[in-house]
Amino acid sequence: MGLLVEGQWVDRWYDTKGNNGEFVRESAKLRDWVTPDGDPGPEGQKSVSAGSNRFHLYVSLACPWAHRALIMRRLKGLSELMGVSITSPYMLDEGWTYELDEGSSGDPVNGVRRHYQLYTLTDPHYTGRVTVPVLWDKKISRIVNNESSDLMRIFNTAFDELTGNHLDLYPVPLRDEIDRLNAEVYDRVNNGVYKAGFATDQKVYETHVTALFETLDRLEGLLDERRYLAGEYLTEADIRLFTTLVRFDSVYYSHFKCNLRRIEDYPALSNYLRELYQWPEIAETVNMAHIKRHYYGSHPGINPNAIVPLGPELDLDRPHDRERLPGKGIWQSHHD
Ligand SMILES: N[C@@H](CCC(=O)N[C@@H](CS)C(=O)NCC(=O)O)C(=O)O
C-alpha cells in the first residue's frame, strides 16, 4: 500500500496518527469528463468525446467504488464498446497490480504490471493516492477520470447515442432525493465502514460504527416502505448502497468490526440486497472470492496472518419479498 510522490512510488500505509486515529480519504484528482461530442461536462469540466472502443476501464473486483462503475457499465450496455482490466485481489507493497497468477486479467491495453504506472503514464510527476477505478482514454493515452461517482454519471449518459440505451439512473425529477441519499450513504455507510475499520483509536471507531448503524436502521425503515431508495425506480443511489451491502456480512462485519448487526438481521435490507443481487446484470459483477481475498489479505495491520475466513454461508439467490412493494425498474429517458 502506498502512493506516488512526484511520480515515485512510496510504500506507506494511511497516516491515521496525523489525524487523531482517523482515516481520511483523499479526494480523487483526475476529474475530466466524457460527453457525446466533447462539450464541457455538467459542471463545465474539460471533456473528451465518446467513442466506440476509445475507453478502457481498470477495476478491482474487490473494491466497492470500482464495483459501482462496473455495474453501470453493464446496466448501460457498454460492455461491447469498453474493455475492462481486473487487478489482482491483493493490494500490498506495490499497490494494485496486474499479476496474472493472482487472478488478474492482465492489462492488454498498456501492458503495465503495476496500477500506478497508469498514473505516471498520465503524469510523470503525479502526486497522490493510486486508486481504482480508472477510466483510460486510448486515443490520447491518459487517465480521464479516477472518481467512481463521476464515472457512474458519465456512463449514465455519454454513450447513449452509440448504444441506443436510454436507461437513466439519475433522472431529473429524482435528483434532489438521490443527492440527499448519496450524501448520507457515502459518509456513514460506504465510507463509514472504512472509517470504522481503519480507525486506530477506540473512540473514533465507536463514533463511526454508531453512525453507520444509525443510518442502516433508518434505511431499514425506508426500505420497508419503498421498493428502492428513491421510490419506485432503481437509481444510482441503490447501486451505491448495494456495493457496500453485498460485502457487509462477509467482510465489514468481521474484518472492519462493524458488528452490531448483520445485514441478514435486517428484514428489509436483506431482502432488498437479494433483489438487487438477483438482477443478472448485477450478479455477474459480484466476485466474492476476490472480495474476501482482498480485504483479509491486504491489510496486515488488521489481519497479520492474512487468514481468509471460510464463512459466513450466505445464499443471496434465495427468494426475496420485494414484490410486495410497487416498482418500475430503471427510468427510461425519452428520445425523439
Ligand atoms: N474516490 C475514489 C476512491 C476509490 C478508492 O479509494 N479505491 C480504493 C480501493 S477500494 C483504492 O484504490 N485505494 C488505494 C489507496 O487508497 O491507496 C472513488 O470512489 O473512485
From TrEMBL:
EC category name: oxidoreductase
Entry keyword Oxidoreductase: yes
Gene3D superfamilies assigned: 1.20.1050.10, Glutaredoxin
Annotated positions for site Lowers pKa of active site Cys: 252, 295
Binding-site positions, glutathione: 96, 129-132, 147-148
Positions annotated as active site in the UniProt record: 63, 194
InterPro entries per UniProt: Glutathione-S-Trfase_C-like (IPR010987), Glutathione-S-Trfase_C_sf (IPR036282), Glutathione_S-Trfase (IPR040079), Glutathione_S-Trfase_N (IPR004045), GST_Omega-like_C (IPR047047), GST_Omega/GSH (IPR016639), Thioredoxin-like_sf (IPR036249)
GST C-terminal domain: residues covered: 171-298
Origin: domain of life: Bacteria
Enzyme Commission identifier(s): 1.8.-.-
Keyword Oxidoreductase: yes
GO cellular component: cytoplasm
Molecular function GO labels: glutathione transferase activity; oxidoreductase activity
Pfam families: GST_C_2, GST_N_2
Keywords from the UniProt entry: Oxidoreductase
PANTHER family registered for this protein in UniProt: GLUTATHIONE S-TRANSFERASE OMEGA-LIKE 1-RELATED (PTHR32419:SF6), GLUTATHIONYL-HYDROQUINONE REDUCTASE (PTHR32419)
Protein name: Glutathionyl-hydroquinone reductase YqjG
Organism: Kushneria phyllosphaerae
Gene name of the encoded protein: yqjG
